Amino acid sequence: MQPDSHFISYQGIEIEYFLTRKDVKYVNLRVNKHGIVTVSAPPNVPFDDIEDFVRSKADWIITHMAQLEQIKSHAIAGK
Q: What whole-number distance in Å separates Cα of residue 55 and Cα of residue 20?
């Protein structure tokens, strides 16, 4: 199953995330090493609850993505 792309706006910053509905117990959020935000959620969780969850984690997402960018720029500068 292909994940659905969604966006939230947080303090003027657009955050794209990919939502997959699957057989998990809780809503899970990950930011991979490429800065892609993925969310997996049980089929019975309302979409509004998922959006609220992502919005509640927006500070963490933005901080994590900034750290990834810093690591990338250091790696490029070191080459």
A: 17
Chain segment 25-42, per-residue pLDDT in tens: 999 999 998 889 999 999
Task: Count, in order, helices (H) and strands (E) of the chain.
Answer: 2, 4
Residues 20 and 1: beta-carbon distance below 8 Å: yes
Sequence ranges of the domains in the chain = 4-77
Tell me the H-state helices in the chain: 47-56, 58-77
CB contact at 8 A, 47 and 59: no
pTM here is: 0.84
